Amino acid sequence: FKQAEKHMKWLIDPLPVNVRVIVSVNVETCPQAWRLWPTLHLDPLNSKDVKSLISAECNSAKVKLTKEQEKKLERHCRSATTCNALYVTLLGKTIACVGNTGNIDEILQQCCQCQDTVSLYRLVLRSIQESLQSDKEKRLLREILCVIGVSHNGVSESELIELYPELTSAVLASLLHSLHKMCLLTYGCGLLKFQHLQAWEMVKLEYMEADENVISAYRQKLVEYFTMQLRVLIFICFSFNSQDRVTWRSADELPWLFQQQGDKQKLHKCLLNLFVSQNLYKRGHFAELLSYWQLVGKDKSSMAAEYFDSLKEYEKSSEGEESMICLADLYETLGRFLKDLGLLSQAVAPLQRSLEIRETALDPDHPRVAQSLHQLAGVYVQWKKFGNAEQLYKQALEISENAYGAEHPRVARELDALATLYQKQNKYEQAEQLRKKSFKIRQKAARQKGSLCGFALLRQRALQLEELTLGKDTPDNARTLNELGVLYYLQNNLETAELFLKRSLEMRERVLGSEHPDCAQSLNNLAALYNEKKHYDKAEELYEKALDIRRRALAPDHPSLAYTVKHLAVLYKKMGKLDKAVPLYELAVEIRQKSFGPKHPSVATALVNLAVLYCQMKKQIEALPLYERALKIYEDSFGHMHPRVGETLKNLAVLSYERGDFEKAAELYKRAMEIKEAETLLIGGKATSRHSSSGDTFSLKSALSPNAFLEHGQR
């Protein structure tokens, strides 16, 4: 990841229970915040591993190495750059490839001069070049590698043949066989791409000499090719009737190529091709599409206005049913896009227009009309206009029942949407009835497909794990018991979950000793369970034991220690033991400062939590500097108009008012309201809900994370 601290902030906080993120990083470039995660260190290969890998490659080609040659290779593969799996595998393939036809000692000598993977790739490429019979084939090899390298996601075989008419299928097949065999190229989604970053680095050094002008020339070749695929000249105008030619390849490559070339004008025109943007959005490239608009310097409102104007222009030329149906799809895509951006009032107009077109061009009872009704209702729900949403959902339900029958999954979707709507309005009885009806439909549909519904799969997995626990006491079995407890908790079977978590704790204490960090994990999980059951005294005792173990066993800034500190602090606060909560909230601030640095927003949130606690204890003097420091961090991190800045200003205003400083309170409150109004105007009259930073919002059910609450064993 490039600029990980900027673009991957969402990975720092605890993740939802059903999400796992595995990130491969280099020790030198790993962001500081990620270093606290559970980590699997990949050690360099030892001499036995090196010998095994090289032998496997040589045996596959029936090449036999002498003892002296094996020792030479083992001695060579001892440095940090020569003992990694890619280097050794490539080394083995190189020896195996020339072993039957050339002098092994000679190739060994050449390989030993390559001190890293890039230089070894260069040797491989030159050996492939030498095997080619003509200068034409060598030139085509160069062109293929360069054009694949400058593309966004790779290039297909058919695209290569169209790009280079002199390239025959036979020559291409031969070249690709050599390149794939030697780990240079691979296939992904039907596209040829570099198998490893080092291979592309080598091509840049070998063929382009890292010259931006050469790279730019190859990008331009692709720009011209994909522009022709659209059958338009992008630098003049875009034909809005080109929807049949806008493939996912054109939509993926063209905007990205313009971005790489730094051509904002062409990128802007490309984005205003409605079918390019629709293609990107429908395939889930929302963030990528947004980044392109940010590059051309357009904010969300300007972008929405330009799309809407383009659609109106396209509508003027739309004639016939097929064209109108296509137009309705475009309006719907724009509405959904604006809804995702939080521009709720702007999203209504395109979704309403999509509905009108479908009702006219198709039929008022057509399933696509139900789809429009559903999308429009979703905006009204987010806008908290529940009456409008209910009417639209009911219409969509009626159409779906008439079109598909009362037991179709589409009907279940509308029932779920209505149930969620009723739940938001505290109409729990009506919501429960609809959910039961929806569940029966989905259950029946799942049986018809020969599959199990979600809860049955979960139960089956629990039973499989249960069978594993019949063996003797071992750390692995204790971990399995812990996982079983978590699984039963997820099924809301708290009594059974408690049994397994207790068994896990007892086994760990017997096998590992009562002071082992794994015991702290079991204690933490049991405490979270008792907290959920409102057995606060039991939860307090177990959290305190877990904290005591983790304080002695783990580093002061370890995430597991931070989790226990946080949850025990929240529990103390809930129980009214504010004096006991204070040192833990202070410790939480220290841990976050060590983990993320003193100016990170996470530190500001911890400061606000501590300030809220002091205010509850009527210690406004202690709270004031904490709020002020948090405000400074939020302003530096997010800007002066961010909602978190507004929330902190509001807290400071209340504090100033309580201290009798009415003039300052009025000033702070005015600033907070200006931020709120700016946010409201941005999305057309209704601010989206955000996580508050003004205090703890601890709920095991609503924010369940196995790392934060019920912890799985580390694999």
From TrEMBL:
Subcellular localization, as worded in the UniProt entry: Cell projection, Cilium; Cytoplasm, Cytoskeleton
Gene transcribed to yield this protein: Nphp3_1
Protein family: Belongs to the kinesin light chain family.
Keyword annotations from UniProtKB, A to Z: Cell projection, Cilium, Coiled coil, Cytoplasm, Cytoskeleton, Microtubule, Motor protein, Repeat, TPR repeat, Wnt signaling pathway
TPR repeats: 370-403, 478-511, 520-553, 562-595, 604-637, 646-679
Protein name according to UniProt: Kinesin light chain
Purpose of the protein: Kinesin is a microtubule-associated force-producing protein that play a role in organelle transport.
Subunit structure: Oligomeric complex composed of two heavy chains and two light chains.
A Pfam match: TPR_12
